[in-house]
């Protein structure tokens, strides 16, 4: 069992054939992966809400907004009054420092695309997490069995030794 | 004899732990790189969708600078290329480290067995 095979989950491994140490390694790795999935899910959820909020904000902008007054945040706590110069387009952060000016419709499309993408990823991760946790349960069951077996063997050995000592 | 073995065992355990720490660190770096590559890929696919009349800006410090779409695409491509190279390099390091960890684990196992044997031997003598 090399780390790679089991990391990719491509190789079929009969977990009943592994020894206790290997099993606990496997369990540890599975647990790490599971907590990673949990974290990813959380960040995805945050991203989803952000895109959703942006989309809703865009929907509030109409061509009638042109020239209307707006309070512009300079910092988190200071605002100055301003006028909307162009209500027909917004500038969107598309990542790695790049921004694209888009008209309202394509901006909405963009947000929709992002929300959809993030939702898809969340579904994927959820499915993967379920799979991993069922594998983990199986591993734990096998481990339990092995431990019981080991204890039985030890007890038998002790009894034998005690019997031999008496004789 | 047992004392010596014990010291050696501890030494090897320490070695193993440092190896594991290094391995974890490399894994985090790999993850970051993977994330960066992914972000660049999404940016590229967005830039591909940009129409002629839409403008592209780049954030430099606190200001947005207007940039040519072509230039931006080239930039992103270059960056992706670089990240891919880095990823490959780090993947090699990771497989290397996995091998090292496995061999160190073997060494540890052997030592542990030796140590246990020595202890049992001592107990029987006593």
TrEMBL record, chain A:
Which InterPro entries does the record match to this protein? PFD_alpha_archaea, Prefoldin, Prefoldin_subunit_alpha
Q: Which GO terms describe its molecular function?
A: unfolded protein binding
Q: Which branch of life, at top level? A: Eukaryota
Q: List the keywords (alphabetical).
A: Chaperone, Coiled coil
Give the GO terms filed under biological process for this record: protein folding; RNA polymerase I assembly; RNA polymerase II core complex assembly; RNA polymerase III assembly
Per its UniProt record, what Pfam families does this chain match?
Prefoldin
The record, for CDD domains, names:
Prefoldin_5
Q: Which SUPFAM superfamilies match?
A: Prefoldin
* Coiled coil regions in record: 13-47
Q: What's any one GO cellular component for it? A: cytoplasm
The family this protein is said to belong to: Belongs to the prefoldin subunit alpha family.
NCBIfam families documented for this protein: prefoldin subunit alpha
Q: What is this protein called?
A: Prefoldin subunit 5
Automatic annotation (TrEMBL), chain B:
The terms under GO molecular function for this entry are: protein-folding chaperone binding; unfolded protein binding
Give a Gene Ontology cellular component term annotated to this protein. prefoldin complex
**A GO term (biological process) for this protein?**
chaperone-mediated protein complex assembly
Keywords for this protein: Chaperone
Residue ranges annotated as transmembrane are: none
Cross-referenced InterPro entries: PFD_beta-like, Prefoldin
Task: Tell me one Pfam family matched here.
Answer: Prefoldin_2
The family line of this record is: Belongs to the prefoldin subunit beta family.
Q: How does it assemble?
A: Heterohexamer of two PFD-alpha type and four PFD-beta type subunits.
Q: What is this protein called?
A: Probable prefoldin subunit 6
Organism from which the protein derives: Megalurothrips usitatus (bean blossom thrips)
